Amino acid sequence: MISSPWQAGDGLRAYQGKIDLRGIQDPDFGMTKLNGEWEFSWLQGPEKGIENHSVEFIGVPGSWTNESKSNQTYPKFGYGIYRLKVFLPEIWKKKILSVSLGAIASAYRIKINEQIIGECGTPGIDPDSIVSRIEPRDFLFFADEDEVQIEIFVSNYTSTMPGILLPISIGPSDSAGVSKAIPLFFDIFSFSSLLIMGIYHIFQYLYLRSSVSPLYFGMYSLVICLRTSLINSKILMLFFPQIPWSWVHKINHLTLSVGVPFFFCFSVQYLLLM
């Protein structure tokens, strides 16, 4: 890797809104995470000493409620713009690249060199204009320049953890599919396993009727199965893309509330049978 002021140690990290990837020479290098210091512009009006349109450097991934480099903090509700200048390696030029975004709360629009390439939900500047949606997405663009400016407009009026919460990656479009397929496979495998276990134990209870512990375990498995479909790859939203985010948010909290009692009841029944 080449030496540069925004390359920390042996790893590639953004520094003061820039990251240098020109040292990448391996065509099979794959996706690269854009972690580090992104430029952040808070656009909400003055509140609690925050200046309007202030520009800071903030850690990504992480909530904007965390302290910035200048020890500035921001309220959880509002909107802002993340910016990062990426110096591309020679082997990526004139190719179709992919930007992979994970959890960003709670709606965003992404631009590459001032051109909109996609959005998730409908970002806005007030609670009435925003449509929240949090799910992993990939966006493609053609790398026709030596560097690209990534700009992400994020707005949040629902989540208690706003901002870019998971790493953002960039790389050749063919590498993006592979990097996304592996965690998706494990999520589907976990979902299927929990679903089968849940149905099996419920039918075991209905057939034997000797103990209620299989029923509790089966219900607990189904609850965790449902929760698995709402996190990481969010496979529920892949199959039902029109489901409102407010429903997803409520179901996510409901699984936590319902899962614990089922597990407690199963544990008690299991100990009584020992």
TrEMBL record:
<feature type="domain" description="7TM-DISM receptor extracellular">
    <location>
        <begin position="185"/>
        <end position="271"/>
    </location>
</feature>
<dbReference type="InterPro" id="IPR011623">
    <property type="entry name" value="7TMR_DISM_rcpt_extracell_dom1"/>
</dbReference>
<dbReference type="Pfam" id="PF07695">
    <property type="entry name" value="7TMR-DISM_7TM"/>
</dbReference>
<keyword id="KW-0378">Hydrolase</keyword>
<protein>
    <submittedName>
        <fullName>Glycosyl hydrolase family 2, sugar binding domain protein</fullName>
    </submittedName>
</protein>
<feature type="transmembrane region" description="Helical">
    <location>
        <begin position="251"/>
        <end position="272"/>
    </location>
</feature>
<keyword id="KW-0812">Transmembrane</keyword>
<keyword id="KW-1133">Transmembrane helix</keyword>
<feature type="transmembrane region" description="Helical">
    <location>
        <begin position="184"/>
        <end position="203"/>
    </location>
</feature>
<keyword id="KW-0472">Membrane</keyword>
<feature type="transmembrane region" description="Helical">
    <location>
        <begin position="215"/>
        <end position="239"/>
    </location>
</feature>
<dbReference type="GO" id="GO:0016787">
    <property type="term" value="F:hydrolase activity"/>
</dbReference>
<dbReference type="InterPro" id="IPR008979">
    <property type="entry name" value="Galactose-bd-like_sf"/>
</dbReference>
